[in-house]
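ok new one. same drill as before - structure tokens go in, u give me an amino acid for every spot. 313 of them this time. try not to just spam alanines like last time pls lmao
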């Protein structure tokens, strides 16, 4: 399939693996790229030199395009950007910050820049900043999210109506049928997170992967909007958050409860009780752990089949 997204990234399928913190190391990124999608390294959970190591290992593991996701709210941002340039990475997805900050600098070094947004307003700002494409993410998504709780099915057509550059849909997409639905609404491709968490190559702890597989409808919730909205599986840590909210807490009290490195503790180290377990609502559709290449192949096969079936509706 050739469209604006596959041509922009020089990939076979318009399937992008999200750059999820503590889940998206070089094994996952290279596996998705080798399977015909676009793999992303999640720089948000990596110190600068760790990111350099993952970039170098990814280059050895695949000769296909891959990129780096850079959340712009993390420290060492300037150093991370310079490592990306030094290592010759050609695709960068930015998020959680002002796209004007580094878009021109990256593009001046021949890098394709994509920015992740959760609203029409920020999609227009990103387009004005000169990005090459936009990821519009509905609040079904796992991890950090938009405050307005706009769903993917609502957001995608509204953003498509307002922008002229390629559009990638994210949030609640884990199947070929979901991919087709997003593209019918105006997306040129999809970014998939939760489904790739439960892959063999994901760097998530096995215990967290199993929790994702076991998750049912209603097991996740968007919370901590006063800090940075995040969708979590309901565990003891979430119950502690819920109880604190009943006391009308200050931002400082929420920060104190959250503490530091709680996401690492949950997703990477496997603390299912006190850790922050970030995953999307679509986890209710994820029932097994399988190789990333199989996930890509099955999504594409289901997409093609669903497209044929839709013609008879």
């Amino acid at each position: 399939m050739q469209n604006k997204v596959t041509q922009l990234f020089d990939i076979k399928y318009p399937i992008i693996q999200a750059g999820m913190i503590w889940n998206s190391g070089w094994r996952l990124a290279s596996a998705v790229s080798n399977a015909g999608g676009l793999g992303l390294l999640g720089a948000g959970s990596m110190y600068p030199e760790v990111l350099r190591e993952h970039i170098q290992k990814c280059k050895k593991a695949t000769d296909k395009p891959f990129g780096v996701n850079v959340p712009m709210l993390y420290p060492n941002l300037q150093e991370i950007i310079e490592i990306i340039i030094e290592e010759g990475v050609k695709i960068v997805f930015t998020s959680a910050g002002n796209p004007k900050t580094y878009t021109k600098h990256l593009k001046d070094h021949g890098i394709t820049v994509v920015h992740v947004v959760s609203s029409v307003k920020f999609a227009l700002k990103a387009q004005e900043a000169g990005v090459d494409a936009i990821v519009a993410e509905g609040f079904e998504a796992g991890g950090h999210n938009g405050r307005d709780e706009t769903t993917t099915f609502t957001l995608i057509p509204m953003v498509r109506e307002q922008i002229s550059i390629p559009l990638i849909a994210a949030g609640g997409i884990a199947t070929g049928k979901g991919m087709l639905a997003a593209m019918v609404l105006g997306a040129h491709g999809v970014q998939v997170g939760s489904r790739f968490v439960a892959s063999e190559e994901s760097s998530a702890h096995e215990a967290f992967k199993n929790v994702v597989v076991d998750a049912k409808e209603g097991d996740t919730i968007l919370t901590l909007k006063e800090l940075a909205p995040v969708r979590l599986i309901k565990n003891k840590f979430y119950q502690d958050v819920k109880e604190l909210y009943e006391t009308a807490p200050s931002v400082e009290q929420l920060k104190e409860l959250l503490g530091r490195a709680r996401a690492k503790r949950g997703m990477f180290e496997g603390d299912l009780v006190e850790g922050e377990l970030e995953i999307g609502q679509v986890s209710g559709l994820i029932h097994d752990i399988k190789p990333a290449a199989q996930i890509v192949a099955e999504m594409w096969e289901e997409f093609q089949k669903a497209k044929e079936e839709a013609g008879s509706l």
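The CA atoms of residues 22 and 180 lie 28 Å apart. and btw The chain has 14 helices and eleven strands.
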